[in-house]
């Protein structure tokens, strides 16, 4: 969660301070790969997939590889011009969201205070699907670029305050619910993208 917040801020801070560069962008991708591609895969392997030994490593490596490909695609597409409405969408699931979805069963186990480690099949399926979502071309909402009407700002601030309060009082339940809601938003973003595309 901290890595995702810092990932959302680092680029803006660099541009604000006028210290952004191509080297910085590549370094940012490397840190994203470690934070969102390597760390979640290792965590899930150590928690559950180690029971499958080599097969478990292969699934973890598959997710990490998909994350690397997703970040590489982002870097190559960033210079390609696109319409304003297209900037509201990401091609495939963004790196932080992909890690978030991959870790959802682990967060749920912490919330319920149950050890789900023996259910390696569930962890393997979710990690595999998360990898596919990363390299897919599904349009997903890019929250930081979605315009918010002025009269909705107050409601957004209330929602943010409620989320922060819930995060402190019941962090694992809140994060598990957040992962579920994000997964539910994927078909909605796809339909919204198709509607915008037809209109344009």
Main β-sheet: number of strands, strand sense, barrel status? Answer: 2 strands, antiparallel
Q: What portion of residues is helical?
A: over 70%
Return the domain count: 1
- Order the strands across the largest sheet as they lie in space: 1-2
Q: Quick check: average pLDDT?
A: 85
Output the helix-strand order: HHHEHHHEHH
Poorly predicted spans: none
Q: Give the class from helix and strand content and strand pairing.
A: mainly alpha
Tell me the total number of β-strands: 2
Distance between the amino and carboxyl termini = 36 Å
In words, what does this structure look like?
The protein is mainly alpha-helical and 200 residues long. The protein has one domain (2-199). It is 72% helix and 3% strand. The protein has eight helices and two strands; from the N terminus they run H-H-H-E-H-H-H-E-H-H. The chain has helices spanning 2-16, 22-47, 54-77, 95-102, 104-112, 120-135, 153-169, 171-199; strands at 89-91, 139-141. It has a two-stranded antiparallel sheet. Helix 2 (22-47) runs antiparallel to helix 3 and helix 5 (104-112) runs antiparallel to helix 8 (171-199). The longest helix has 29 residues, at 171-199. The radius of gyration is 18 Å and the shape is globular. The termini are far apart.
């Amino acid at each position: 969660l901290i890595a995702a917040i810092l990932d959302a801020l680092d680029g803006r801070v660099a541009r604000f301070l006028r210290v952004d560069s191509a080297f910085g962008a590549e370094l940012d991708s490397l840190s994203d790969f470690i934070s969102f591609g390597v760390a979640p895969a290792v965590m899930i392997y150590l928690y559950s997939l180690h029971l499958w030994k080599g097969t478990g490593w292969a699934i973890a490596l598959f997710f990490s590889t998909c994350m690397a490909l997703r970040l590489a695609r982002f870097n190559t597409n960033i210079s390609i011009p696109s319409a304003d409405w297209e900037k509201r969408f990401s091609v495939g699931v963004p790196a932080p969201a992909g890690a978030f979805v991959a870790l959802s069963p682990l967060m749920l186990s912490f919330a319920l205070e149950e050890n789900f480690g023996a259910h390696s099949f569930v962890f393997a399926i979710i990690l595999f699907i998360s990898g596919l979502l990363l390299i897919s071309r599904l349009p997903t909402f890019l929250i930081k670029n979605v315009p918010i009407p002025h009269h909705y700002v107050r409601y957004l601030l209330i929602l943010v305050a409620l989320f922060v309060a819930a995060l402190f009082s019941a962090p694992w339940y809140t994060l598990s619910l957040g992962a579920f809601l994000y997964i539910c938003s994927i078909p909605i973003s796809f339909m919204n993208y198709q509607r915008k595309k037809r209109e344009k």
